[in-house]
Amino acid sequence: MKFLYSSLLLLSILQLVQKTTAYSFPNTHIDWCIYFQRLQIYKPECKFYDDVDIHVEKEIRAKPISRPFANSLIVMQMQQCSAHYMYCTPNYQCGEGQLRCIDMTRYRECCAPTRRQCPPVTHLNFRCIVSEPVSWCDKDSDCHTTPQQSCCPTGCNYNICI
Fold this sequence. Notes:
Residues 1-22 form the signal peptide. Keywords: Signal. With 162 residues, this protein is an alpha+beta fold. The chain has helices spanning 2-20, 32-38, 51-62, 67-75, 121-124, and strands at 85-89, 98-103, 108-113, 151-153, 159-161. Strands 1-2-3 form a three-stranded antiparallel beta sheet, with no helix packed on it. A two-stranded antiparallel sheet has the order 4-5. It is elongated and about 100 Å long. The N and C termini lie far apart (78 Å).
């Protein structure tokens, strides 16, 4: 009787331990933002990740992507970023050579080139009101204190650091 009781006790303890063990991620690459979201740790650069992304990511891991689904991923491309964007990560929603970022001007998610380039003059929205403008920079090395470290034209006969 003691043996049966101790066996049942041991079995119930093992089942309890199995239920309470931490979730282990598969041995494949996991996106930085999804990793922290699953740990419930807030990261400001990941604020555009939502439950839909995790659902899609789980679906992709669960089964191979069929051709219609793969084509629909290409169609869901987002808008290009304005001049001021941050917190970029690779993501399937942006095309090849682009990153998914947060547009800090419009507070929305957007796609930006992997290599930072000067934005089009129309994105900068400068109004040319100075008669004799002075450039803030002449070359990229003049912009070592800005995030992008790029000297870009404004369309008003002067350059600014971005």
